[in-house]
Amino acid sequence: MSERIANEFYKSKVMSADEAAQFVNNGDKVGMSGFTGAGYPKAMPTAIANKAKAAHERGDEFAIDVFTGASTAPDCDGVLAEADAIRYRAPYQSDPVMRKKINGAEMKYQDIHLSHMGLQVEQGFFGDFQVAIIEAVRINEEGNIIPSSAVGNNVEYLNAADKIIIEVNEWQSLDLEGMHDIYSVPKLPNRTPIPINRPGDRIGTPFIPVDQNKVVAVVKTDAPDRNAPFKPIDDTSKKIAGHFLDLLEGEVKAGRLKYDQYIMQSGVGNVPNAVMAGLLDSKFENIQAYTEVIQDGMLDLIDAGKMTVASATSFALSPDYAEKMNAEAKRYRDHIILRPQQISNHPEVVRRTGLIASNGMIEADIYGNVNSTNVSGSRIMNGIGGSGDFTRNAYLSSFISPSIAKDGAISAIVPFASHIDHTEHDAMVIITEHGYADLRGLAPRDRVKKMIAIAHPDYRPLLEEYYERATAEGHYMQTPHDLKTAFDFHINLAEKGSMKGDA
Amino acid sequence: MSERIANEFYKSKVMSADEAAQFVNNGDKVGMSGFTGAGYPKAMPTAIANKAKAAHERGDEFAIDVFTGASTAPDCDGVLAEADAIRYRAPYQSDPVMRKKINGAEMKYQDIHLSHMGLQVEQGFFGDFQVAIIEAVRINEEGNIIPSSAVGNNVEYLNAADKIIIEVNEWQSLDLEGMHDIYSVPKLPNRTPIPINRPGDRIGTPFIPVDQNKVVAVVKTDAPDRNAPFKPIDDTSKKIAGHFLDLLEGEVKAGRLKYDQYIMQSGVGNVPNAVMAGLLDSKFENIQAYTEVIQDGMLDLIDAGKMTVASATSFALSPDYAEKMNAEAKRYRDHIILRPQQISNHPEVVRRTGLIASNGMIEADIYGNVNSTNVSGSRIMNGIGGSGDFTRNAYLSSFISPSIAKDGAISAIVPFASHIDHTEHDAMVIITEHGYADLRGLAPRDRVKKMIAIAHPDYRPLLEEYYERATAEGHYMQTPHDLKTAFDFHINLAEKGSMKGDA
């Protein structure tokens, strides 16, 4: 049986999280492991939060800059935000407490493409990091790290940091060893091609090399990943998933896709789960995933022999499925590869695979510009995540959303997107429960009818009225707009509680 | 001496453009050579326009869909637009007559990333093409094409088309043979890495293979490329160029760039010419370009021994420099490589090179969202071109513009960009004659001061007033906006003739 800390030097560095918090100081840049609620440090965030609270009680300043893979969990982002311990956060978050602090101007947040974060750190745009805090399954004999349920930007942060703190989490299965594939592109000016041709190609090592001289603490933990519970699939999700599967079937019919050639990329959520349930009963075989996160539905597809391989950077599993993974990681590691997010989301490899992308959105406008991040232009939800990395470089890109939210007060199809994360040049297909709008090969005005057709029926007349105003005599006609009323939907929502403008 | 048409079969297909126009019919999808006024067919467009006019006079319909590399010239896009011979145009244009027809709803235009156009044709999104019309320097003994001053999407269109018409242009220097490097990524599901590590790497053939059975006509021409005349560098351009060079020097000072490691990407225009003039007297050496077009300034840098190699897909030279190129192509081809635009603009290679991107813009908002295409949200100027390909994947990306246009009636810095082609996640640095706003590592609110500082002084108070409204009590603070007045600049311009709102 493997020892969790197999290296003598590291054994000498074992201490409590509270003791290790001495190495984290006000103003530090701290790179952490963690991606979508998996693989984040479980003990250090609370210890740092406590240190911050004590400092604030003394009247001292204490706030750090926190960089991760992507979102983490209440016991990481949540406790740090609650303690006002963060000054600047990147590249993604989804914590309710943190979101409130950001939207209330109590902390700052930069929303960065997930494939860019580690790259920009390597390029020196953020200067030195003072600390890296990385969760591991195990430290091997040579002192290298076996990462846990997420790889994220671990490699880049370990390289950038002056001091390294490792959390060894006994909750994580030792059988995850062998699932990871750690590879770094050589630094400028010596970058070379990433030799991945298929999602299943392994090109690196199963561990992350660590500069032992920088390790200041090893903290033992035994705590589960966030593991959001699985929501039952509702009717709207089932319908959206059905339209997505129709889109796939359409590609097959058009001779552009074969039943054994579907490469999946998928955001997390209810609709993707419905899609994967649908795929179980479909004609698609040998499905491969080149994506960010491993979801429940992918394990089902693997178990059913429908999916041969899934490449990602982390897990986003429900409690039951996390348990199954911990019990059967040895079997799953024949089918699953966890990579650094620079590689899982790399434009080079994404484009090469020819994947079909599907990501959630907040709203899209009548020309196919997509808002993934800021409600009514200002209020951050989560962030762009990897949606840009995949959308821009996919063989075929799609965005999915129910046509309405908040009992119909909000329409997902609007005259002018109040924030734009994916432009009309990138989004190919938009899907709601009312169908899919295939915008490929269409000039802007030809997209409008298709977009209005997938809006909720209550909003179609309002969108048609807008388009009439936009195309009135004397207007320019490449992308017709009426800028005076372009944001009326959003202004109505703020003032009257509904985009419809109901009192 | 090489023969222009060295293959017997092709000799038998020589005919006039008017005769060859028989192969182009109403409703056809036609792929043409041509990129930035170089390498476009010189005779066929007029012949097709005449055929269209004759049909229209008879009361018959005649309009085709035209796909090119990028923009062409009055004797291509101009004559076709004038004759109402185009129904749909992609992926880029810059012709005044065509622009008017598009904005007047007399033809349709889809503005597509230049690296996506050929790819989407290969992927079958546009179905079969009926005709490809490609300009060549020469047809060799085996019947393969030596392209002329642009490669563009020639390969993809030749493959997609049922019928091929070749224009052999005697004006183009025979010494261009050997300058081209033709390479195609294998088709899905067999795509492989593009083996270019440095801008100067050659990986393909100097000719384009052609399926002889599809060739229906060869047309001889002797006509110059468009070759827009060189504008003298004005003061504003010099200042903007100076700030760009300061940005480069800043990278050197920060230890992120060495004087012999600058990889240039540059849009076309007055400011880039000023930048290149500035580089002649700078400490930068061994400059390499991985870009779309070869401009006058690059030839100067090559002649001065400052630039070792420039990779692009076409020329955009002034008449004097085009003459020099025609006379000395043999010498220049040691330093210049012309590639298919899928390769010159490929995200994979762009990211690998670590280039520094610099592209023009129409406007940017206070958070760094950039409009490259639609004036006041609706009126197309040219198109996104390759700016997205380079910006998203550059080591460092920048956008340049004078701070005002039309004698101050238009500000390049606005509260909310009226069309967004590059999002806040992509644009790193914005430059006007008032300085550069380095937005790297900054959350949205921290970008505002920097953006207002590079606006024209007349507009700074107006932008500050907007930001005050945007950050008023009760607003969400990630990306503060006041949607009711977000487009006031643009509405003022339309109604009062100035974004300032002057009467």
Could you describe the 3D structure shown?
- The structure is a homodimer of 503-residue chains.
- Chain A has 503 residues and is of the alpha/beta class.
- Chain A folds into two domains: 8-221, Glutaconate Coenzyme A-transferase, CATH 3.40.1080; 235-496, Glutaconate Coenzyme A-transferase (3-Layer(aba) Sandwich), CATH 3.40.1080.
- Chain A contains 17 helices and 25 strands.
- In chain A, the strands form six sheets. In chain A, strands 1, 2, 3, 4, 5, 6, 7 and 8 form an eight-stranded mixed β-sheet that branches. Chain A has an eight-stranded mixed β-sheet with strand order 14-12-10-9-15-20-24-25, with helices on both faces. In chain A, strands 17-16-23 form a three-stranded mixed β-sheet, with no helix packed on it.
- Chain A is globular and about 75 Å long.
- At the A-B interface, strand 4, helix 13, strand 18, strand 19 and helix 14 of A face strand 4, helix 13, strand 18, strand 19 and helix 14 of B.
- Chains A, B: This is Acetyl-CoA hydrolase/transferase family protein.
- Chains A, B: InterPro entries: AcetylCoA_hyd_C, AcetylCoA_hyd_C_sf, ActCoA_hydro, ActCoA_hydro_N, NagB/RpiA_transferase-like, Succinate_CoA_transferase.
- Chains A, B: The active site is at residue 292.
- Chains A, B: Belongs to the acetyl-CoA hydrolase/transferase family.
